[in-house]
Known about the structure:
Layout: E1 2-8, H1 28-39, E2 40-41, E3 44-45, E4 49-55, E5 63-67, H2 87-96, E6 104-107, E7 110-113, H3 117-126, E8 131-140, E9 151-154, H4 162-171, E10 173-176, H5 184-200
Parallel strand pairs: 1-4, 1-9, 8-9, 8-10
Antiparallel strand pairs: 2-3, 4-5, 5-7, 6-7
The chain binds S-adenosylmethionine (SAM).
S-adenosylmethionine (SAM) binds at residues 134-136, 154-155, 157-160, 176-178, 180-184, 187.
Amino acid sequence: MRELIYYSRTAPTSGSYIKEDLQESGRVDIAIHTIIAAFFISHKIRSDVTLHLIFAGPPNPPRHLELKPVTEGKTGIDKIYISKKNVSAVLKKMLYKYREGQKREVFPGFWIEKKGLLELVNDFYEEKRNLYLLDSDGEDIRKAVIKTDPVFILGDHRGLPDKEFKRLKKICQSISIGKKTYFASQTIAVVNNELDRREENGLL
Ligand SMILES: C[S@@+](CC[C@H](N)C(=O)[O-])C[C@H]1O[C@@H](n2cnc3c(N)ncnc32)[C@H](O)[C@@H]1O
């Protein structure tokens, strides 16, 4: 299982803040592209990815949205059908369904709770998971050793805030997909492809 963490300092933490203009809604459009890149391949939804979104925008940061779509079962009862068209509605509903002090499953495999980026990464650190920070100055992904059940961390349109970036640099291995700066969603597509190819070749 591969896990991805996308952090957004502006993505809203209340459903009512997601308006028709997604770009003006705290750049939630980027989180949506990230979801599509994480889960959608041709005619299929990946079952080998868990995506964690940390939204740190107004009005009540932070929120941790954990997405691992259930792909088996009956639509509407034991799974929801997430399509490229309804991602913003799914996020909105998740934010509305948050309840103080709970980690709540809003749809099968879609959870929400109050948790910040460093707290979440620290949980993985304590579980001794293999942590990778996606950073253009890191080691080339084509040469790097990537261990089992990796966790990859990505920043928003402005990267990661200094405090978080410094801490993550200390506890993660930095990995680069090249010298150019790519969108978070493009970075995820490259990481997913690299991991797929390693798995196909028995290297992971
Ligand atoms: C749009 S970029 C951030 C741009 C921001 N101005 C910066 O320089 O950090 C969003 C995220 O994608 C990832 N990313 C972008 N280009 C990358 C690269 N060449 N190698 C590894 N990760 C990359 C990083 O995690 C980054 O925080």
